[in-house]
UniProtKB/TrEMBL annotation, chains A, B, C, D:
It is found in: Cytoplasm. The active site is at 149. It catalyses: N-acetyl-L-glutamate 5-semialdehyde + phosphate + NADP(+) = N-acetyl-L-glutamyl 5-phosphate + NADPH + H(+). The keyword Chaperone does not apply. It comes from the Bacteria. Its main location: cytoplasm. SMART domains: Semialdhyde_dh. Catalyzes the NADPH-dependent reduction of N-acetyl-5-glutamyl phosphate to yield N-acetyl-L-glutamate 5-semialdehyde. This is N-acetyl-gamma-glutamyl-phosphate reductase.
């Protein structure tokens, strides 16, 4: 059975990534693509790498006939997203890739995003889109909130350890390395090639990164108590990928065991042999997440390294994984593409 | 129908690329992987990005039971390849990715590769693997000789122009920009990251590059007279991709017309609108080739730019395209993956 | 003797490069830095790599007391530059890094830059800033027009050959590879790291690049007849550097001889042994230009490869070289920094 | 006064960096360059970026007349270094860039380097080369042991905090990001451009990196008790540079104060305003080290980020800084080159 798909905000990187993945998806058909400022253009003009595909032209959102759409990916900026989704017909399923429905608590939303939420009713219905941990809810959801890409990586690394009670919840430090595309196709000076090449720098330091809202919400809920991690993201000179190094206190072997046991049947999460470090490039362009656990020389301390492709598993691949569940398809449909290496 | 595939020389980049592509191929099944020096290892140890796949361990060639193999991709070094293929059972179809069977003339082989050919009988049977121009022969061939990646790019840019007689055959200059992976996974100082980063340099200058053997053979055959182009490859700081700028004399519009007419039904060759330049990154990780024609300010001169991914369309993708034909499958089977961008 | 220097437009890359070079110049002292939109800021806020230096704060141009300035580097955008320089006191020497005074013919300026020149009297007085070929004029000039970075590279490669009459003037093809910083610190989508990484593309194709105005002017003047080259620039994934491959017809050894004889006493131009190719990274961060000549396999054809750092020898280094002459200093003062490798 | 300098092991990256820096040093003159396997070659053949310099040809060590040498930089591999230095005339001052004389305890050397030390007498005389903290000893030393580049970065970040007693010594975590050149010009698969591009990975995980020997020795000595930090280096896709993120417990403002007070008169150490993060590219090619302190959202925790150029301040620049002191020159002589940006 073929499902008609609309992508709102198709001119950004996550929009383009959705199209790339759907291009070889067995049962999804792109029926509409919106991009307000580029309405009227062909997708091949905005993204010539997609020119071999037979795609609808870019339109404005109000030009889309949603009665013919089964599911809508919403890849719009934060705040815009909630305003748009509020007005979509109720029988159109929605996977939102923005931050608008990730936080359940309107106060938390206001704290991290600096403005009141404009669709608090919808916010209540949204299911958090970390597929591996919210499968049942996602299957029956009308609205799924895609997670932050950093938030996804951190949760893949830490949720099993919190659940299994094998680490000290007050001593979690996450040092994250993120590639440029995480910031989207936005014209900012620090994202210029001449600035990024040969550069590494920390940003949103000291607990200012918005994905901390997700970490706080999810880890505290999981632990049944307040959990506040330290989180320091760094921009590294690469295009795709997140690699995260978590410093935790606990028995390294117990940590490895908890990790293996949590992911043993997961098609996209690969736990490496104990003591092995994953590499960011080994998941590029794919929906896989590689995780490694290493014992530190100091007793009772371990390093957990997790890596995924921010545009794929961290956002558009995750979105399709969720859409598969919502539409009754195989969860892995269209997502088994092997990473591009080298 | 499932075809059993062996890959000889699976530890190199073209071997890994074959595995990547076959991972989502609908009817190919990897039955054997050889890598002499790494025999006994798991593929996931050599290429951890493939660890989600259920693959046979690496073996030596003589450990393979070829009676169960339908088709064999031979990704071995030049010279080794001919020695190995000579001894394969005659009912195993072979796609060779080395240079060993590209040149029909043993003297030409000796000239460009510095040693006599050791399997001249086989050399006669081999069909040149530029699919778009040798389809009929490939369909019925037992042995197909994959082209050089630079040679493929240049031929996509120039064959239609030579065939249509729209360019001056004595005035063809090809300036090529090639990424690092074209040199394979070999330990050479100039391929180190610290050396390549921020670097561009010409190599095999003045007519020394071996792919000139292919250009000379194919263009002369096509033109019915001796054609000798100028060919200057440059190494550029990137991992995958070839972008080639050809300077030709002829009417630019006639050149565009010849190009469009040659490729109008080709699934993998995209001719851009007249005056448009392709970009290397727009084909990365895919089997597509983008070609653009631009008129120079000087009358009667045009610039033809062609780009493809050296590991995919330039070698392993081409190999699978040929294998599809040899095994009676859809030519595009497993090859419609969209490029990875950004 | 210390010379007081002002830099107008200090917040761009050429401005920052001037500061970098003057930091270790024995007799230049930075007395004023302007940047209209960033006036009031410290240079260390705009360019933290310069924070160890004791520099004046950024100001607007009209805040500068030019009576205390000996020489002014003008790193402003085209068109702005002519308006500003027109109003500077006549006893302030000026090295302009914009395109405003490169072309002597107001019609040529209008053709290539799309608007009439607003300071045609000044235009007449300006001396073209290609130091190695305009030394005498530069020494006594009040206003020197810095060359285009591509134009400089091409002229270093070709002027000696045109002067010596050793190449066919109707058959000159220049294929140029340029790094990102040539486009300055401007917010353009194609200059984003995520777009440029792993990318190569041609631009201003077919004779549209503005530096052709300089090539036409200089080569025609030198040859005493109209010379129109073919010129195709490509953007390559690097930050600094230009490497240019020129295809010429003529005797390769005569070309090598002409090159060596032209540059034998030049401190910054290195002619490599015959048949040797230069590499872009070998001049990075320096005022040197490396040139190599290679014979093609086809008789009477040669390849000339030249490379320099666009921000240094191609613009700010050249500017200081000229300023040294204008102020009676050693031409090489402050410019003998060795390239940064790797 | 001019000092005659020999560089042993001139064909590696640190050797080339020494030559680059000495090229504009006011009082050092390169009298001899050794490179055993490349003896007989010109330096310009090994490093064409140095071809403008008038340098002695490469020789073997025993071809050098040490009676004419004032100071010898020894950029040889570990173990080789101690064997060579042992035999040098006692009146030749030596700055060793290898690891051979960094550790004072022969057992520690054996533990971290896997073999007994072969020159334990010399080891006792060697002064540890972290200039800012061992100035007096260095001034009068005959043999100075250059520090590890990672070890230098970590000590710049942490020594003032340990000395001032403002951090918890049992809770120091160092997450380090290092560029490729730290591994030298060695032919290793993971250092190939095709492997490193778009890649980030941890290595020597869990306390295996040899520079821990230096951290343990220096921090324990400074604290007067055993201090064992956690140290996780990562390889990032860049050529030069180290950026280190240290997670410490203590009052952030006290940490900032300790840092500022420690470095207030240091010419090469720049402490940024409280809450500011340094960027790796801001020190590239220079002898500067930038340090920033940021308070975490959790009370009593701070993040310290330090960055330097591994080949310059991390090794060859440090070596020249020490040589300046040993030879009675200004400590900053030849080292005030501004960073290369962009």
């Amino acid at each position: 059975m073929t499902h008609n798909i609309a992508i709102l905000g198709a001119s950004g990187y996550t929009g383009a990534e959705l199209v790339r993945l759907i291009a070889t998806h067995p049962s999804f058909r792109i029926a509409a693509l919106s991009a307000d400022r580029k309405a009227g253009m062909k997708m091949a003009e905005v993204y010539p790498h997609l020119r071999h595909l037979d795609l609808p032209d870019l339109v404005t959102i109000d030009q889309i006939d949603f009665s013919k759409i089964d599911l809508c990916f919403c890849a719009l900026p934060h705040a815009t997203s909630q305003a748009v989704i509020k007005d979509l017909p109720a029988d159109v399923k929605v996977v939102d890739l923005s931050a608008d429905f990730r936080l359940r608590d309107p106060d938390a939303y206001q704290k991290w995003y600096g403005q009141p939420h404009a669709a608090t009713e919808l916010q209540k219905q949204a299911v958090y889109g970390l597929t591996e941990f919210y499968r049942d809810g996602i299957r029956t959801a009308r609205l799924v909130a895609g997670t932050g890409c950093n938030a996804a990586t951190g949760q893949f690394a830490l949720r099993p350890l919190i659940s299994a009670g094998v680490i000290d919840l007050d001593e979690i430090i996450v040092d994250l390395k993120a590639a440029a595309s995480g910031a989207g196709r936005s014209l900012k000076e620090h994202l210029l090639a001449a600035e990024m090449d040969e550069n590494v720098l920390g940003y949103s330091l000291g607990g200012k990164h918005r994905h901390l809202g997700e970490f706080d919400q999810e880890f505290s809920k999981l632990a049944g108590r307040k959990v506040e991690i330290q989180f320091t993201p760094h921009l590294i000179p690469a295009t795709r990928g997140i690699l995260l190094t978590a410093y935790v206190k606990g028995d390294p072997q117990a940590i490895q065991d908890a990790m293996e046991s949590a992911y043993t049947n997961e098609p996209f999460i690969e736990v490496l042999p104990f003591g092995t470090a994953p590499a960011m490039k080994h998941v590029r362009g794919s929906n896989f997440c590689h995780i490694g656990v290493v014992a530190d020389r100091r007793d009772g301390r371990a390093i957990v390294i997790a890596t995924l492709d921010n545009l794929c598993k961290g956002s558009s691949g995750q979105a399709i994984q969720n859409a598969n569940l919502m539409l009754g398809e195989e969860e892995t449909a269209g997502l088994m593409l092997a990473p591009l290496y080298p």
